[in-house]
Each structure stands twice: as structure tokens, then as C-alpha cells.
Prior knowledge:
The complex is a heterodimer.
Chain A: H1 2-11, H2 13-35, H3 42-61, H4 75-79, H5 82-92, H6 98-129, H7 135-146, H8 150-158, H9 162-186, H10 195-205, H11 208-218, H12 223-230, H13 233-253
Chain B: H1 2-27, H2 35-52, H3 58-69, H4 71-80, H5 84-88, H6 92-129
Pfam family, one (chain B): MadL
Keywords (chain B): Membrane, Transmembrane, Transmembrane helix
Organism (chain B): Marinobacterium aestuariivivens
Amino acid sequence: MYEALLQVTGKYNLITAFAVIGITMWFSYWISGRFTRGRVHGSAIAILLGLTMAYLGGLFTGGEKGVVDIPLLSGIGLLGGSMLRDFAIVATGFGVNIDELKRAGLSGVIALVMGILSSFFAGVAIALAFGYTDAVSLTTIGAGAVTYIVGPVTGAAIGASSEVIALSIAAGLVKSILVMVTTPFVAPMIGLNNPRTAVIFGGLMGTSSGVAAGLAATDPKLVPYGCLTAAFYTALGCLLGPSLLFILIRGVMG
Amino acid sequence: MIIYGVTLLSVCTLAGITLGQILGKLIGVPANVGGVGIAMILLILAGSYLNKRGLIDVKTEQGVEFWSAIYIPVVVAMAAKQNVMGALTGGPMAILAGVTAVACGFALVPMLDRLGKDECKTSAATATNS
């Protein structure tokens, strides 16, 4: 019985993913309407459920890919993978208002730079507080707080230990997941309800998965604006991390 | 036809990601430089150009809109494949570093919003004055 099920879900993995995610969405919107009267957005609940399932997947399989490590659910890796994610994000751009984008352009660029610097120095400060004093480790952990891609790229470039690189990835993962979960709740407090602030938000947070999910749970109309700036964040971080930021930290720490 | 919309979306996505990849190579960064952003801008420009010429009908639009609507389920699937376990077992330093970075980001949103708005107002004021 299980064997047969496994065969089918293995062969039709993307279809299985559509079914599982669809049921998760339906359940989430039901909870949203029934228990929160729509105050907590259905997609926010769905994303939380997804993360919980990912945690349980990691707990039971010991793998690194959430529920994808469960053979029955391997298709979720394809549906939630970078190919379809990017395809769907680009599609959201179809509804973008060009004038809104132009008006927020400069703020977006400033947000990008500020976002990388603030995340980096936040990471460096915490690493300092935990007793790290060498420039390589400080830079790597700071870069991890930028995104979980900038961390290992920077660490590998400047020769950090694998332990520190692992820490930097963990810091980036915490950031990304936290943005997914908290954005819909923080949004009203910081005025995140129009294209302009969405562009700024995307530039400041930068983690593409975090921004994508956080905005989806807040207001799907804002998704393209945030993702557009966030698309440049990781690359800019990879550019600055091993060069300017490392030289700066090395200069300060000696 | 619906496939025209999907094709338009595919071509823009591929072109954008490719440009991002080339840009990364040129700058010397092991990452895609804004590929998704470039693709989005291409789609916006191509969309408005074709729209003006009346070359996009409802069916073509539906080909793009379907994928735009499937976006939230894709994000939920993406959430379900995150390494949540790895994030939570990364230790207090990793968690604190992530939390601080996010807190800084949130705090800066209203600040930057105000910054740009003042500029807009002053430029609008000078525009009306002159």
C-alpha cells in the first residue's frame, strides 16, 4: 500500500505538491476565517504551517530541506524551488505601476545599501558580544546576517573556518524565516502598505525568500515592488562582503 | 492564446536571469545580479509596449496571471522546504544575529520612507514655485 503510494507520488511529484499545498492553503484560509475572522491573513497561516512542517521534516529525517526530505513530498521541492519561485515572482510584475516604481527608485537604491550595512554591522556586533575578535570570523558572521548566501560566499573568499561559515548560514536562515513570519504583524506599525514602502522594505531586508513570503502574507499587491529591489541585494552583498566590508573590519580590528 | 502569455513570461524570465548571470560574471560575483528584477522590468516594458499596440488579448493576459496567482502556493511550498531545523539549532549567537538584523531592517523602513518623502515635497514645492 505505502509502496504503491510512494511510486505514484514519486512519479507524479509535482501534482502531489499541488494537491498537498492546495489542501494546506484551504485549511489555512479556513482557520483564518473561523478563528481570527480574517484578521490574520490566510497566506500568513499557510506560510507558518509550511515552516512548521519543514521543522518537523527536519526533526524526523535529519535532512536540510524541510519536508522535501520526506520521499512522499519530494515534489514540494520542485514547486517551491528557485525555478518556479522566480517564474511566479516575475509574473507578479505584470501588475506593476511603472510610475510608482520610478517614484520609489532612488529610495530603493538607498535602502539596498542601508540594508546591507545595517544587517552586516548588526551581525558583527552580536559576534563581538559573543567573543569573536578576528576580522575573518566577524566579517563572515556579519555577512551571514545579510543573507545565508552572502555568508558562505564571503567566508569562502576570505578563508573562514567551516564552523564560522555554518554559523553565518544559520544567522541568514533565522533572518529569512523571521521576515516570513513577522512581516504581516509588523507591517501596520511601519507603514508597509504602499508600493513605495514595499520597495524600501525589499531593499532593507533583501532575503528574497523572506521578502517574497513576508509580502505575500501582508498584501500580495506589494510583492513585485519588494522583490524587485530584493533581487539586487544578495549580489550587492556578495560584492561588498569579501571586499569593502572585510577591509573595513580588518582595518578596525587590526 | 494562453500559451502566448506563458511564452512572454518565459522569454522575459530567461532573458533577465541570463543578463543577471552575465552581469555577475562581469563584476566577478558568484551570484546572479538582479536577474529576477531585470526580468520583471522586461516583462513590464514588453507588456506595456504590446498593450499599446493592441497585441495582448485577454487570453494572453491569463497566461501570465495564472502564474502570478500561483505565487502564494509557491511561496508556501518554499516555506515548507526551508531548513528551519538548521536555523533553530544554529545556537544563540546565530539566532540573535538574525533577530537583530531583522529588527534593524524593520526600524529603518519608516525612516527611509520619511527621507524620500521630504525630497519629493521640496521638489514639488520648487516645481510649483518656478
